[in-house]
From TrEMBL:
PROSITE patterns: IG_LIKE (PS50835). The keyword DNA-binding does not apply. GO terms for cellular component: neuron projection. Residues 7-90, 96-194 form the Ig-like domain. Keywords: Disulfide bond, Immunoglobulin domain, Membrane, Repeat, Transmembrane, Transmembrane helix. The gene is Emb. The chain crosses the membrane at residues 202-222. Coiled coil: none annotated. It comes from the Eukaryota. This is EMB protein. InterPro entries: CD47_Vset, Ig-like_dom, Ig-like_dom_sf, Ig-like_fold, Ig_sub, Neural/epithelial_adhesion.
Length: 239
Protein backbone atom coordinates (compact mmCIF):
# COMPACT_ATOMS: atom_id res chain seq x y z
CA UNK A 1 0.00 0.00 0.00
CA UNK A 2 1.32 3.42 -1.00
CA UNK A 3 -0.19 6.81 -0.26
CA UNK A 4 0.38 10.43 -1.28
CA UNK A 5 -1.17 13.20 0.81
CA UNK A 6 -2.05 16.32 -1.17
CA UNK A 7 -2.20 19.73 0.53
CA UNK A 8 -4.80 21.08 -1.90
CA UNK A 9 -2.67 24.04 -2.96
CA UNK A 10 -3.02 25.10 -6.60
CA UNK A 11 -0.33 23.70 -8.89
CA UNK A 12 0.78 20.98 -6.46
CA UNK A 13 2.17 17.93 -8.30
CA UNK A 14 3.68 15.31 -5.98
CA UNK A 15 5.49 12.13 -7.04
CA UNK A 16 6.51 8.83 -5.45
CA UNK A 17 8.67 6.00 -6.81
CA UNK A 18 7.34 2.50 -6.10
CA UNK A 19 9.74 -0.42 -6.50
CA UNK A 20 8.17 -3.67 -7.75
CA UNK A 21 10.54 -6.57 -8.22
CA UNK A 22 8.11 -9.47 -8.61
CA UNK A 23 4.41 -10.03 -9.40
CA UNK A 24 2.29 -8.57 -6.63
CA UNK A 25 -0.83 -6.61 -5.75
CA UNK A 26 -0.40 -2.87 -5.26
CA UNK A 27 -2.78 -0.35 -3.72
CA UNK A 28 -2.29 3.33 -4.55
CA UNK A 29 -4.11 6.06 -2.64
CA UNK A 30 -4.41 9.81 -3.13
CA UNK A 31 -5.54 11.59 -0.01
CA UNK A 32 -6.42 15.21 0.65
CA UNK A 33 -4.85 16.84 3.69
CA UNK A 34 -7.49 17.30 6.40
CA UNK A 35 -6.77 21.05 6.44
CA UNK A 36 -7.20 21.41 2.67
CA UNK A 37 -9.69 23.96 1.37
CA UNK A 38 -10.39 21.84 -1.72
CA UNK A 39 -13.89 20.47 -1.23
CA UNK A 40 -15.65 17.73 -3.25
CA UNK A 41 -13.12 17.66 -6.11
CA UNK A 42 -13.64 15.78 -9.35
CA UNK A 43 -11.12 12.93 -9.31
CA UNK A 44 -9.60 11.22 -12.34
CA UNK A 45 -7.05 8.38 -12.32
CA UNK A 46 -4.80 7.84 -15.32
CA UNK A 47 -2.23 5.30 -16.38
CA UNK A 48 -0.01 7.36 -18.65
CA UNK A 49 -2.62 9.15 -20.78
CA UNK A 50 -5.29 6.42 -20.40
CA UNK A 51 -8.12 7.12 -17.96
CA UNK A 52 -8.86 4.33 -15.46
CA UNK A 53 -11.43 4.07 -12.69
CA UNK A 54 -10.66 4.04 -8.96
CA UNK A 55 -11.82 1.05 -6.99
CA UNK A 56 -12.70 2.70 -3.68
CA UNK A 57 -13.15 6.14 -2.11
CA UNK A 58 -13.77 7.79 1.22
CA UNK A 59 -14.58 11.40 1.97
CA UNK A 60 -11.02 12.58 1.31
CA UNK A 61 -9.18 9.65 -0.34
CA UNK A 62 -9.34 7.73 -3.61
CA UNK A 63 -7.71 4.35 -4.20
CA UNK A 64 -6.91 2.04 -7.09
CA UNK A 65 -5.90 -1.59 -6.71
CA UNK A 66 -3.57 -3.16 -9.25
CA UNK A 67 -2.41 -6.69 -9.89
CA UNK A 68 1.07 -6.45 -11.39
CA UNK A 69 1.84 -9.69 -13.22
CA UNK A 70 4.36 -8.56 -15.87
CA UNK A 71 6.52 -5.59 -16.83
CA UNK A 72 3.93 -4.15 -19.23
CA UNK A 73 1.87 -3.08 -16.19
CA UNK A 74 4.64 -0.97 -14.75
CA UNK A 75 4.68 2.75 -15.45
CA UNK A 76 3.14 5.97 -14.13
CA UNK A 77 -0.25 6.12 -12.42
CA UNK A 78 -1.65 9.58 -11.64
CA UNK A 79 -4.61 10.98 -9.76
CA UNK A 80 -5.88 14.45 -10.70
CA UNK A 81 -8.12 16.40 -8.35
CA UNK A 82 -10.09 19.29 -9.84
CA UNK A 83 -12.15 21.82 -7.94
CA UNK A 84 -11.46 25.46 -7.12
CA UNK A 85 -7.85 24.48 -7.86
CA UNK A 86 -6.21 21.50 -9.54
CA UNK A 87 -3.68 19.24 -7.84
CA UNK A 88 -2.17 15.90 -8.83
CA UNK A 89 -0.03 13.03 -7.61
CA UNK A 90 1.90 10.45 -9.61
CA UNK A 91 3.13 6.99 -8.60
CA UNK A 92 6.00 5.64 -10.72
CA UNK A 93 5.93 1.82 -10.62
CA UNK A 94 9.34 0.47 -11.64
CA UNK A 95 11.74 -2.39 -11.04
CA UNK A 96 14.05 -1.67 -8.07
CA UNK A 97 16.78 0.78 -9.02
CA UNK A 98 20.46 0.19 -8.29
CA UNK A 99 22.34 2.43 -5.91
CA UNK A 100 25.99 3.14 -6.69
CA UNK A 101 28.69 5.76 -6.93
CA UNK A 102 27.89 8.41 -9.54
CA UNK A 103 31.26 10.15 -9.80
CA UNK A 104 34.09 8.61 -11.84
CA UNK A 105 36.33 6.18 -9.98
CA UNK A 106 39.89 7.53 -10.17
CA UNK A 107 42.82 5.36 -9.15
CA UNK A 108 46.41 4.55 -10.18
CA UNK A 109 48.24 1.90 -12.16
CA UNK A 110 48.88 -1.24 -10.13
CA UNK A 111 46.14 -0.41 -7.62
CA UNK A 112 42.74 -2.05 -6.97
CA UNK A 113 39.40 -0.62 -8.21
CA UNK A 114 36.21 -1.48 -6.33
CA UNK A 115 32.64 -0.99 -7.63
CA UNK A 116 29.63 -1.71 -5.41
CA UNK A 117 25.95 -2.03 -6.41
CA UNK A 118 23.03 -2.19 -3.98
CA UNK A 119 19.27 -2.64 -4.50
CA UNK A 120 16.23 -2.25 -2.30
CA UNK A 121 15.19 -5.88 -2.94
CA UNK A 122 17.32 -8.94 -3.59
CA UNK A 123 17.51 -9.69 -7.35
CA UNK A 124 17.45 -13.15 -8.86
CA UNK A 125 20.91 -12.63 -10.39
CA UNK A 126 23.71 -10.08 -10.73
CA UNK A 127 25.80 -9.54 -13.88
CA UNK A 128 28.78 -7.24 -14.44
CA UNK A 129 29.75 -5.91 -17.87
CA UNK A 130 32.64 -3.99 -19.40
CA UNK A 131 32.16 -1.82 -22.46
CA UNK A 132 33.88 -2.82 -25.70
CA UNK A 133 33.10 -0.06 -28.17
CA UNK A 134 29.30 -0.03 -28.30
CA UNK A 135 28.90 -3.57 -26.95
CA UNK A 136 28.58 -4.80 -23.38
CA UNK A 137 30.74 -7.83 -22.62
CA UNK A 138 29.83 -9.91 -19.56
CA UNK A 139 32.68 -10.28 -17.07
CA UNK A 140 33.50 -13.88 -16.18
CA UNK A 141 35.88 -13.95 -13.18
CA UNK A 142 36.62 -17.67 -13.61
CA UNK A 143 38.32 -16.97 -16.95
CA UNK A 144 40.18 -13.88 -15.63
CA UNK A 145 41.13 -14.95 -12.11
CA UNK A 146 44.08 -12.54 -11.96
CA UNK A 147 42.05 -9.53 -13.11
CA UNK A 148 38.47 -9.71 -11.75
CA UNK A 149 36.79 -10.76 -8.52
CA UNK A 150 33.01 -10.64 -7.97
CA UNK A 151 31.73 -10.86 -4.40
CA UNK A 152 28.10 -11.10 -3.32
CA UNK A 153 28.34 -9.38 0.06
CA UNK A 154 24.64 -10.02 0.71
CA UNK A 155 21.52 -10.83 -1.33
CA UNK A 156 21.06 -7.16 -2.27
CA UNK A 157 24.72 -6.02 -2.47
CA UNK A 158 27.23 -7.03 -5.15
CA UNK A 159 30.87 -5.99 -5.55
CA UNK A 160 33.33 -6.03 -8.46
CA UNK A 161 37.08 -5.80 -7.87
CA UNK A 162 39.54 -5.10 -10.71
CA UNK A 163 43.09 -6.09 -9.81
CA UNK A 164 46.50 -4.77 -10.90
CA UNK A 165 45.10 -1.85 -12.87
CA UNK A 166 46.63 -0.78 -16.17
CA UNK A 167 45.72 1.84 -18.76
CA UNK A 168 43.83 -0.89 -20.68
CA UNK A 169 41.30 -1.08 -17.82
CA UNK A 170 40.10 2.48 -18.42
CA UNK A 171 36.48 2.60 -19.54
CA UNK A 172 32.84 2.17 -18.58
CA UNK A 173 31.51 -0.75 -16.52
CA UNK A 174 27.91 -1.76 -15.74
CA UNK A 175 26.24 -3.86 -13.10
CA UNK A 176 22.85 -5.39 -13.81
CA UNK A 177 20.32 -6.73 -11.33
CA UNK A 178 17.72 -9.11 -12.79
CA UNK A 179 14.24 -9.24 -11.27
CA UNK A 180 11.16 -11.21 -12.33
CA UNK A 181 9.61 -8.07 -13.79
CA UNK A 182 12.72 -6.77 -15.53
CA UNK A 183 16.24 -5.59 -14.84
CA UNK A 184 18.09 -2.46 -13.70
CA UNK A 185 21.56 -1.26 -14.68
CA UNK A 186 24.10 1.06 -13.07
CA UNK A 187 26.98 2.76 -14.90
CA UNK A 188 30.52 3.20 -13.55
CA UNK A 189 33.36 5.13 -15.18
CA UNK A 190 36.91 4.06 -14.35
CA UNK A 191 39.94 6.28 -14.85
CA UNK A 192 43.45 4.96 -14.30
CA UNK A 193 46.30 7.45 -13.78
CA UNK A 194 50.02 6.90 -14.12
CA UNK A 195 51.90 6.51 -10.84
CA UNK A 196 53.82 9.66 -11.85
CA UNK A 197 50.64 11.75 -12.04
CA UNK A 198 50.58 12.81 -8.36
CA UNK A 199 54.33 13.58 -8.52
CA UNK A 200 54.04 16.03 -11.42
CA UNK A 201 53.01 19.06 -9.30
CA UNK A 202 55.82 18.26 -6.83
CA UNK A 203 58.37 17.93 -9.65
CA UNK A 204 57.20 21.24 -11.12
CA UNK A 205 57.63 22.99 -7.75
CA UNK A 206 61.09 21.46 -7.29
CA UNK A 207 62.08 22.59 -10.80
CA UNK A 208 60.93 26.15 -10.06
CA UNK A 209 62.89 26.17 -6.79
CA UNK A 210 66.04 24.89 -8.56
CA UNK A 211 65.73 27.57 -11.24
CA UNK A 212 65.20 30.26 -8.61
CA UNK A 213 68.16 29.13 -6.46
CA UNK A 214 70.38 28.87 -9.56
CA UNK A 215 69.39 32.36 -10.69
CA UNK A 216 70.11 33.80 -7.23
CA UNK A 217 73.48 32.00 -7.11
CA UNK A 218 74.52 33.27 -10.56
CA UNK A 219 73.46 36.82 -9.63
CA UNK A 220 75.54 36.68 -6.43
CA UNK A 221 78.58 35.41 -8.36
CA UNK A 222 78.12 38.15 -10.97
CA UNK A 223 77.73 40.82 -8.28
CA UNK A 224 80.82 39.59 -6.46
CA UNK A 225 82.96 39.64 -9.61
CA UNK A 226 81.63 43.04 -10.56
CA UNK A 227 82.55 44.39 -7.11
CA UNK A 228 86.08 42.99 -7.33
CA UNK A 229 86.51 44.51 -10.81
CA UNK A 230 85.46 47.97 -9.59
CA UNK A 231 87.93 47.81 -6.67
CA UNK A 232 90.77 46.87 -9.03
CA UNK A 233 89.86 49.81 -11.30
CA UNK A 234 89.93 52.25 -8.33
CA UNK A 235 93.37 50.97 -7.28
CA UNK A 236 94.70 51.49 -10.83
CA UNK A 237 93.35 55.08 -10.89
CA UNK A 238 95.02 55.84 -7.56
CA UNK A 239 98.37 54.53 -8.85
Amino acid sequence: EYEIVLPGVSGTALQKNVSVGSPTKVELTCKLDENSNLKNPQVTWKRGSETISHTSKTQNSWTIQLTISDSSQLGSYSCILKGEVEVSATFHLQVPQIEGKERPIITYEGDLAVMVCKTEYAPMAWTWYMTNGTELVAINPSSHTNKFRIKRQSADVNRLEILKLTKEDIGVYWCEAAFRLGSSKRRFELRVLSIMAPLKPFIAVVAEVVILVTTIGLYEVYSKKKGEGEREFDQIEQL
